[in-house]
Amino acid sequence: MKIERVEIREIHLPLVHFFETSFGRTTTRRIVLVRVEADGTTGWGEVSAGEEPFYSHEDPETAWHILKDYLIPWSLKKEWPSASDIAPRFRPIRGHNMAKAALENALWDIEAQQKRVPLARLVGGTLAEIPCGVSIGIQNSVEELVEKIQRELDAGYQRIKIKIKPGWDVEVLDRVRNRFPRIALMADANSAYTLADIARLKELDRFYLMMIEQPLGWEDLVDHSKLQRELSTPICLDECIHNADDARKAIEIGAGKIINIKLGRVGGFSSARAVHDLCKAKNIPVWCGGMLESGIGRAHNIAMSALPGFTLPGDVSASRRYWTQDIIDPEVTVSAQGTIQIPQTPGLGFAPSLERIEAATVRKESFE
Ligand code: OSB
Ligand code: MG
């Protein structure tokens, strides 16, 4: 495919409810979207970076800069045999995986349309539907958290993830577990602890969680392997894993037993597939994480979740949990059994609504 034109734009989308993690609270998402035209076909990608560089070093500004000054000039007017050929070209740029993923994933969208196959099938997906969980942020009170959990269980979601941090952990989980003794439950700390907190982290073992996600440093595999030896609860790695090589090292030193794969964090479908294939070969379960994506990033997450190694419910849930109106048609819906059907139509399977995207746009720039 020959890339004729690339447009980047920033949209602002207010969340239905604030989302709070150990590193802060988000009320409105600032999302950079990438639109690529190649051989008369249009593909879309989404930068999943947070508003501030608190989850990783990336934010919407850094992504805009890397796309505008490197990734777009390096890919425009060139002939790419397939979407999988662009990741090696981007390799000289260190990091900036979320910016890379947005452009690469738009090419996968184009390739799926050109080959007239569903995106899920093009990337190697085999599942017809995927199991869904929800990620519930830190609330103003435990009562509100319990109420929210009940609402999501009533909607059919198969597992509940809550966010924890020092001061919102043991007591909260104690009350949640007492109220919901049998649900599939996990906790995500987003790097809020250190090995000095080991006694407190060991207390979490009594809640028989499915896993505890990223308790320690955002780049620290070594301390996670020390912690895993002290815990019966499996550790799931999120922030630490940027590529298949990180996953290999993590598995080798026992830094965790489960991996959360995020398309943005690992740099797009090519890298995500490599992480998936490695984990599958090593019998490490994986699941698809989320970054409060708009419908475009969500549609990519759904396609990736169809890969056979995605055996655990992910953080991919219905559009209505995030937005009063999503920017795709149809919106993402979840069945009463807590599943999402993989689209069987060619390409993304969800049409970006230009009208809604335009209405949410605060700046855009195009390159030919
Ligand atoms: O750590 O998984 C995370 C949201 C923003 C940044 C990091 C994370 C999250 C979530 C939300 O947990 C997942 C979602 O519902 O999209
Ligand atoms: Mg996480």
In summary, what is this structure?
The chain has 368 residues and is α/β, with parallel strands linked by helices.
* Name given to the CATH homologous superfamily of the largest domain: Enolase-like C-terminal domain
Strands of the widest sheet, in order across it, are 5-6-7-8-9-10-11
Radius of gyration: 20 Å
Strand content: 15-25%
The string of secondary-structure elements, in order, is EEEHHHHEEHEHEHEHEHEHHEHEEEHE
What is the CATH topology descriptor of the largest domain?
A: TIM Barrel
Question: What is the total tally of β strands?
Answer: 15
- Morphology: globular
- Helix content percent band: 25-40%
CATH class of the largest domain, named Alpha Beta
List keywords for this structure.
alpha/beta; TIM Barrel; single chain; 2 domains; Enolase-like, domain 1; 368 residues; seven-stranded parallel beta sheet; binds 2-succinylbenzoate; globular; 34% helix; 15 strands; binds magnesium ion
Description:
There is one protein chain. 34% of the residues lie in helices and 22% in strands. By secondary structure, it is an alpha/beta fold. The chain folds into two domains: 3-116 and 351-367, Enolase-like, domain 1 (2-Layer Sandwich); 121-341, Enolase-like C-terminal domain (TIM Barrel, Alpha-Beta Barrel), CATH 3.20.20. α9 (244-252) runs parallel beside α11. Magnesium ion (MG) binds at residues 188, 190, 213-214, 238, 260, 289.
